[in-house]
Every structure is written in structure tokens, then in C-alpha cells.
Amino acid sequence: MTCRVLALLLGLTGGMAGGIAGAGAVPAQELTQEQAVAIRSGVQATLDSYCELAAAGRWDALLRLYAEDARFRWVANGVVEARSVDEIRKYFLALPPGTKVQNTFQDSEITPLAPGVAQVLTRFQTRLVDPKGGGFSFGGVLGMTLIDRGDGWKILNGHSSSPSRRGP
């Protein structure tokens, strides 16, 4: 893994076009058009699978779309909500049986960063539907880093934010 890719994954680039300060200039790895198209296609397939699996309540299969990795983080509205896939698993398994999660992604931008690494930025809408017909929905903006683990693209980290309500 190049220093540049590692920096991107750890969020250390901070606008340093030439690389990490003190690490020497590390040029970004150029991708061919074919590589970029393949990355976008693979990541889009993962996003589509995520929506399908969540809508079907297939939590075990859905959880395989997350990277089992010590660097895994999920942040929502400025709070680290999960530091492992096990924490995400507990959330889904705590939902009442028969609950479905309907997700839609709109205006998704998939940016290939390097071979095996991509960034997603998208608007999202999520609706939780319990088997008795109740539920709630929320939406906002979602950013994720996905990595190719050979058996498919996995979510390494993500941040979602929803608009806050302001007083009159």
C-alpha cells in the first residue's frame, strides 16, 4: 500500500498535494480509465446490494458488506457510533424481527482514489419499517470509503449527517 493511499484512508492528506509532510513527495497513483470504470461499477454494485439486503432484512448478508478491519469507524452527526462491525451487528440484530430498512441513494458520486480504494458521497434517505406498520425516516448526506478485499467492495468507514432543525 502506498503512503498516499494510507494517508487517504487515515485522513492525513489535509490538502498536501505532494504527499505527507516529512514523508517525501508521493505522487497519487494514476488509474487507467478501465480501472476507474471497474471501481465505479463494483462500488455501485455494493451500494445496490446494500439497499436490496436491508430492504429484505437480510442482516447477515448485509453485514458482510462492511470491512472487518481495525480501522473501521462509523460516524453520525459528529459522533463516533461504531468502532467495529460487531457494533454495527448489534444494532441490526436489536431491531424487532421483521423490520425492514429501506434506503435510497441519490446523486451518488463514486470517486476512485487508487486501485482497491474508492470514496462515495451521496444524499440518502432511510426509512425503518417495523412489521406492525410503524417506523420513521431520516436522511441527509453520506460519505464512505470502500476498499476491495478481493471478495467484493467493503465499507471501511462512513459518516452520515442529517440537517439539524433550527428554531424559528
Structural summary, described in words:
The protein is of the alpha+beta class and 168 residues long. The protein has one domain: Nuclear Transport Factor 2, Chain: A (Roll), CATH 3.10.450.50. Helices cover 27% and strands 35% of the residues. The chain has four helices and six strands. Strands 2-1-6-5-4-3 form a six-stranded mixed β-sheet. The termini are far apart. Residues 1-27 have low confidence and may be disordered.
CATH level 1 class label: Alpha Beta
The end-to-end distance, rounded to whole angstroms, is 50 Å
Give average pLDDT, whole number.
84
**Derived structural class:** alpha+beta
Order of helices and strands: HHHEEHEEEE
Can you count the beta strands? 6
Q: Per the principal axes of the C-alpha atoms, what is the gross shape?
A: globular
Major sheet summary line: 6 strands, mixed
| Strands ordered across the widest β-sheet | 2-1-6-5-4-3
Low-confidence stretches: 1-27
